[in-house]
Design goal:
156 residues; alpha/beta; Rossmann fold; seven-stranded mixed sheet; 7 helices; 7 strands; 28% helix
Length: 156
């Protein structure tokens, strides 16, 4: 998707081991950026495959915060509004995703935004996926076995 859409700014929510970040970075244009958000720094995450070299060219950056918190979301709203592609692979705890998507719904976007919501078939994500009223497509058969959803966030 990164190779096809050629986004200027990709935002990933949920860095974890860093495998998705590395894959997306591989397909980024040389003038694009990938910004990841997580509550745990990559150096402290068990099994993380990221290294300092992955951040050296400045195209990959991690920020530590909880974007489910409306005030924290507001502090980062300028960068979120500038994203072309948003990949959400957060904790699936029944709290984060609904709160984050509610915050995202109030954001004034500066460009069209495609949202990839991972793990939409995980038990805690079923109701979250079903409650999304924006145009969406279940891409599970093309994505991950636990569900991959694509949402056109710019439309009402």
């Amino acid at each position: 998707m990164v190779g096809l859409l050629a986004p200027r700014l990709v935002i990933e929510i949920g860095t974890a081991e860093g495998l998705s970040a590395l894959t997306m970075k591989k397909y980024l244009r040389s003038d694009s950026r990938l910004l990841t958000f997580d509550v745990i720094p990559w150096r402290e995450y068990p099994g993380c495959v990221l290294t300092g070299e992955d951040f050296a060219d400045g195209r990959l950056e991690q920020r530590i915060c909880d974007l489910a918190d409306p005030e924290v979301f507001r502090q980062h709203s300028h960068v979120l509004a500038a994203a072309d592609l948003l990949f959400v692979d957060a904790p699936k705890d029944g709290r984060f995703e609904p709160a984050f998507l509610k915050n995202l719904d109030g954001l004034s976007l500066s460009a069209p935004l495609m949202v990839v919501l991972d793990d939409i078939r995980v038990w805690n994500m079923l109701s979250t996926w079903r409650e999304i009223t924006k145009p969406k497509l279940d891409l599970t058969s093309f994505g991950h076995w636990s569900g991959t959803g694509l949402i056109d966030w710019r439309m009402q």
